[in-house]
Automatic annotation (TrEMBL):
SUPFAM superfamilies: MCP/YpsA-like (SSF102405). It comes from Endozoicomonas montiporae. It comes from the Bacteria. One of its GO terms (biological process) is DNA-mediated transformation. Belongs to the DprA/Smf family. This is Smf/DprA SLOG domain-containing protein. It holds the Pfam family DNA_processg_A. Residues 96-298 form the Smf/DprA SLOG domain. InterPro entries: DprA (IPR003488), DrpA_SLOG (IPR057666).
Length: 464
């Protein structure tokens, strides 16, 4: 596999190629890279141009007390070390993606902006990285009861077509991922260390081969455990997902700090499993703004874990799916305050500037997406704030079919449908499979796409 000069420059500036030695030049941190990359963009320079011989001239106006010219020059002179390391990693199946690649996690890039990692190393199915899903996090030393619940959550997500996103660490992380892939589901593991070792581990190997798993890391693939990297990794788990579940947390450490950071930044809805462990921090996380989920796995509806807030009005509101403007101003404000389903577009307040490695990559601007209206966010009345009951989605399914007719006149990917209608990927997949079973759609493979069936040339009468 060959790498573009842009990718080579980004690698040279941002990663180690061997175990760090005392006194060796340190690669840029994500924050430093974001600062330097924005300057490059302002100067109309690409990372690839830094590999030219006139580096001092290109960086004549660059001034930063931490990112010095000497540091940049030393990092860029590590070409031989990079070539040897990449050859070794590629033999183990490790690939590299940068922010300009289509498979780079779009949710993460949208939520973190310039603080998103400039690159990820990975093994497995890159297509999973933009699937979204449920982040499941928790302690390394969780109880057998919590681990059994975690395994069941993974399996239940698999049966609902929902991807598990976790950190791959021993305990809750690993159990949730294995619960999903062992049930023929999919999973994304964001590793804080030892990616190269994980790529060859027996527990992951068959799932990597079957394309049900992807393991990624923004860190040196041979890095050992580092507490700072583990803490930094947590935000990436949340930002790749659409909702999150804390199974067990202490009152300090990675699970605790990651949950509080997610609540502060409001990336995704956060749910917490009840626990009898009085030393746990689960209740404290709920007091900070998270929600309790049901303690019984049989009562948990995993699609409810993507709903940010739940409301118990005196009378359940009836949503007008096609005429939101007919609601009063106060009703609209109330719905906006309490009702939200996570989508990749809904969490982003301000658009982030494109970094130089993204120049020339044209944003998708599908006319279908422009024409299709967004389905209104769900409001679910529930007194005890537990994810325990499936909302009535039948009217939404009819609405979905009505607009699917124009969207699927030609084969279209599930992700495009999700973005066009503003729906969560897992819900769209469930309805697409139902439409296939009903003979309304035809499923095509390699890649997976859906098209309106020739046998159903018109919209069903009940939807007109």
């Amino acid at each position: 596999m060959s790498f573009s000069e842009n990718t080579q420059a980004i690698l040279l500036l941002n990663t180690y190629f061997s175990k760090p030695e005392r006194g060796a030049v340190k690669p840029l941190t994500p924050t430093e890279w974001g600062r330097f990359a924005l300057w490059l963009k302002d100067q109309k320079l690409s990372p690839a141009q830094l590999l030219q011989k006139n580096l001092s001239k290109l960086l004549a106006s660059w001034q930063d007390k931490n990112i010095t010219f000497e540091r940049i020059k030393a990092l860029l002179e590590r070409g031989n070390a990079m070539a040897l390391a990449l050859e070794k990693w590629q033999r183990a199946g490790v690939w590299v993606i940068t922010r300009s690649d289509d498979c780079y996690p779009k949710r993460l890039k949208a939520r973190l902006g310039t603080l998103a990692p400039p690159l990820f190393f990975g093994v497995g199915n890159q297509d999973l990285l933009n699937q979204g899903g449920l982040a499941v996090v928790g302690s390394r030393n969780a109880s057998p009861v919590d681990l059994a619940f975690t395994d069941a959550v993974g399996a239940k997500c698999a049966s609902n077509g929902i991807c598990i996103v976790s950190g791959g660490a021993r305990g809750v992380d690993e159990t949730s991922m294995l619960g999903a892939v062992n049930a023929h589901g999919t999973s994304i593991g964001v590793m804080a260390d030892s990616l190269l070792k994980a790529a060859m581990a027996k527990k992951w190997r068959s799932h990597l081969a079957s394309n049900n798993l992807v393991l990624i890391s923004p860190f040196y693939p041979e890095a050992g455990f580092n507490a700072g990297n583990a803490m930094a990794r947590n935000k990436y788990v949340y930002c790749i997902a659409d909702g999150a579940l804390v199974v067990h947390s202490g009152i300090k450490g990675g699970t605790w700090s990651g949950a509080l950071e997610n609540l502060k930044k409001d990336w995704v809805p956060l749910w917490v499993k009840p626990t009898e462990d009085r030393a746990a921090g689960n209740a404290d996380i709920v007091n900070q703004g998270a929600h309790w989920c049901n303690n019984s796995i049989d009562e948990v509806v995993v699609t409810d874990l993507f709903i940010k807030h739940r409301l118990q009005p005196t009378q359940a509101p009836t949503l007008d799916l096609w005429g939101a403007e007919e609601r009063s101003v106060s009703q609209n404000k109330e719905l906006e305050s309490y009702s939200s389903v996570s989508t990749v577009g809904s969490e982003v307040g301000e658009s982030q500037p494109n970094l130089p490695e993204q120049e020339g990559i044209q944003a998708a601007n599908d006319s279908k997406a422009k024409a299709a209206p967004k389905i209104q966010d769900e409001v679910v009345a529930d007194a005890d704030l537990t994810a325990c009951r499936e909302p009535d989605l039948e009217p939404l399914y009819d609405f979905f079919l009505k607009h699917l007719h124009s969207l699927c006149s030609t084969p279209i990917a599930p992700d495009e449908i999700s973005q066009s209608l503003g729906l969560h990927n897992s819900q769209v997949k469930e309805w697409l499979m139902r439409a296939v079973e009903e003979g309304i759609l035809v499923k095509k493979t390699r890649p997976v796409r859906f098209q309106w069936s020739e046998l159903k040339k018109t919209i069903p009468k009940n939807l007109n």
